[in-house]
Amino acid sequence: MQLLLIALVIAGGMGLSIEAGILGPLGGEVGDLWATFSIFGVGAVLTFLLMLFFSPRSGPSFFSQPGWTLLGGVLGPIYVVILTVAAPIIGVAMTMIGVLAGQVFKSLLIDHYGLFGTPHRKINVQRLYALGFILAALLLVARG
């Protein structure tokens, strides 16, 4: 099961690279915020259809959840605007490695402190090496 999830995460990362490559030209044609809106509009319609047919509602009210759990709804568009603006200027590879560096850095802190209800996973030497290699990749791609 874990290998399947790792494969799905890798495929999702590939999809984000494609999204970054698509958003730049779209933003150049219609504007960065309109490109972001189009991505979320299409995504919202698709998600609604999937929920309608495959995910019957049976649980606590969406509005009874803590407000901080909705932060992703704020962070998502900011991330997509950054992709839309950055990818055409610095390239998709540089953009995605930068995103990855930020994700891994913040993820290590979230795991280490068990933030947002996640299990504690202490920062160790191997995790720091992984972050170091990602930062090295960022420098190598920047110079290439």
Fold and architecture overview:
The protein is an all-alpha fold. Helices cover 78% and strands 0% of the residues. The chain has helices at residues 2-30, 32-54, 72-90, 92-113, 125-143. Helix 1 (2-30) crosses helix 3 and helix 3 packs antiparallel against helix 4 (92-113).
Low-confidence stretches: none
Largest sheet: none
Strand content: under 5%
User: Which secondary-structure class do the elements indicate?
Assistant: mainly alpha
Number of strands: 0
In round numbers, the mean pLDDT is: 92
Radius of gyration over C-alpha positions, nearest whole angstrom: 18 Å
The amount of helix comes to over 70%
Q: How far is the first residue's CA from the last residue's CA?
A: 38 Å
Helix and strand sequence = HHHHH
Protein name: DMT family transporter
Organism: Kluyvera ascorbata
Keywords: Membrane, Transmembrane, Transmembrane helix
InterPro entries: YdcZ
Give me the secondary-structure topology.
Elements: H1 2-30, H2 32-54, H3 72-90, H4 92-113, H5 125-143
Helix pairs in contact: 1-2, 1-3, 1-4, 2-3, 3-4, 4-5
